[in-house]
Structures are given as C-alpha cells and as structure tokens.
Design a protein that fits this description.
Shape: globular
Largest sheet: 9 strands, mixed
Number of helices: 6
Strand content: 25-35%
Distance between the termini: 96 Å
Number of domains: 1
Radius of gyration: 25 Å
CATH architecture: 2-Layer Sandwich
CATH class: Alpha Beta
CATH topology: Alpha-Beta Plaits
Helix content: 10-25%
Number of strands: 9
Order of helices and strands: EEHHEEEHEHHEEEH
C-alpha cells in the first residue's frame, strides 16, 4: 500500500541549488528532490553518511503556488582562526515563494516521515540553513499513489496578500514538476537525485522531470462589482484637425 505526504514550503527566503559550483551558488525556480529528501532525512535524525536508498526511491513532485522573486546576495567571509579572507561568492535566493511538495511511497515509510515532520530531530530549512520555513510544513498524508495526482487536488496554498492580488480570478493556473514516468523520453533533466549527502563525497544523479499545468479553484474569488462606473473612453488622436484649423487661419 502506498500513500503521499504533502508539505507546504514557504518562507522569507528559499534556495534550492542543483548545479551550483564554486563561488556562484544559484537556485532553481522550485524545490529540488535532493533538497526535500535532505529535509526529510534531517527530520528523521539521520546522519549525513547514512544510507539514502529508501528515501531516494520516493516519488517526488512539487507545485509552484507562488513563484516569488529571485534575489542575488554578494557575500564576503573570513576564516575565524586565521582571519584570512575567503573567496567572495554570489548566492541566489527566492523571496516570498510558496511551494507544495509531495513524496509518495510505502505507507509505513510515509507515516514515519509524517511523524518526523511534525516533531523533527533536526530543524528543517528550505535549501540552506539561513532559510527557515514560515509556519508548519505538514499538510498531512493522502491515500493516493501518485504525488502529481495528490497535488492536483490540493488547495491553493499561496500567501494571503498574494491571493488578494488574484481575488478577481475564479481559478489560478499552477505548474507541477513531477517525476517523468516515461524513462526520460519527454522530460527535462535535473541533477537532483540524491545518492549520498556525505560531505566528503556528495553525489547526485540525473532525474527526468515533466511539467504539468493545472487550474485550481481560488478560495478568495471575489467577482468585480457590477455597479462600477464604466471607464471614460479615450478620445481619438486627430492631428489632422489641428492642421485644418491652421489652414483656415491662413485663408483669412
């Protein structure tokens, strides 16, 4: 029997790297599988050198409920013991973003992950330690086998101020990024399939991802008032009218 665990990933800042190298630390536009699996492993209390086979085998999908804004932070640092300057770095973040992630697998494992998220051994963070979550992560479990199908039925989780901006929309169009089940023939590739989190030799494999677009109901839908005054029409620009008047003045 399989089930799905849903997580609301929201915070002032998030950063989900999949191809960051050296001094340039980029972020993807949505949470990566390796980042979410790392969050769950930390919640379980697993060491970085622990075996990840069971967690890496979980099916994964994420929905972009509020895309946020990409930010760049220019950082400098020094070694605490020698006061020697470290290389400067560019670090990229997503500000004010909200995502719903879902992992699917064996019911017993999902139940254990659900309990760990509710009472984590290590505090969770959204990609980097400097990015704590805002509010609870737990959205509960679903008795379905496919994370994508679970996300299609999930209520829109955007922030209140963001929903207010879309109050006149009956539905909102959202993007779901899920595992490609066609052996990579249709999806894009992303190097975020975790193999090892061991800091001495972190390893990630390629994963094929398929994008799906869905419409979900807007719980804050408020149709525009019908008694509003119609907009004042913009007068047509007629430069030739001025020329005609000028010709009349010359004739007199």
């Amino acid at each position: 029997m399989s089930s799905v665990l849903a997580l609301r990933l929201a915070g002032p800042l998030q950063s989900w790297g999949a191809s960051a190298r050296f001094a340039r630390r980029t972020t993807e536009s949505a949470p990566t599988k390796s980042g979410v699996i790392g969050l769950l492993a930390a919640a379980l209390g697993r060491d970085r050198t622990a075996n990840l086979t069971d967690l890496a085998a979980l099916r994964f999908a994420v929905r972009i409920d509020q895309p946020g804004t990409r930010l760049r932070d220019f950082q400098t640092a020094r070694h605490a013991d020698t006061d020697k300057a470290m290389p400067v770095s560019d670090r990229f973040y997503l500000a004010d973003a909200v995502f719903v992630a879902a992992v699917g697998g064996d019911h017993a494992l999902i139940r254990a992950l659900h309990a760990a998220v509710r009472a984590p051994v290590h505090l969770p963070y959204l990609g980097r330690r400097s990015c704590p979550p805002q509010g609870p992560l737990d959205l509960g479990t679903r008795d379905v086998g496919d994370p994508v199908e679970a996300l299609k039925a999930e209520e829109w989780q955007a922030s209140d101020w963001y929903r207010q901006q879309r109050r006149h929309d009956r539905t909102v169009n959202l993007t779901i990024l899920g595992d490609d089940t066609t052996d990579g023939r249709l999806g894009d590739t992303l190097r975020d399939q975790p193999i090892s989190f061991d800091p001495r030799h972190r390893r990630y494999a390629l994963r094929s991802v398929v994008s799906t677009s869905i419409d979900v109901p807007n719980p804050r839908f408020n149709p525009p008032a019908r008694n509003r005054r119609p907009p004042v029409p913009v007068p047509r620009h007629e430069p030739e009218a001025l020329l005609s008047r000028m010709d009349g003045l010359r004739c007199t």
